[in-house]
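Design a sequence for this backbone.
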């Protein structure tokens, strides 16, 4: 069993770039939402991103 990262342990380095990209994409989508207002396609993109993150979290046992 692999050790899990916690508040005192750094995240798994091999997932670091993926986490950074997803976080950045989510921030960009949220900023775009604030700038242009609510838009059905933008809302759908944000929901899909959040769903994908949830699935990845479950599949990796929270190791993302």
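Sequence:
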């Amino acid at each position: 069993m692999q050790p899990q990262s916690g508040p005192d342990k750094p995240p798994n380095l091999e997932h670091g770039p993926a986490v950074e990209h997803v976080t950045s994409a989510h921030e960009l989508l949220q900023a775009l939402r604030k700038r242009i207002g609510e838009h059905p396609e933008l809302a759908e993109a944000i929901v899909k991103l959040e769903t994908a993150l949830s699935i990845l979290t479950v599949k990796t046992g929270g190791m993302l």
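The chain has a mean pLDDT of 75.
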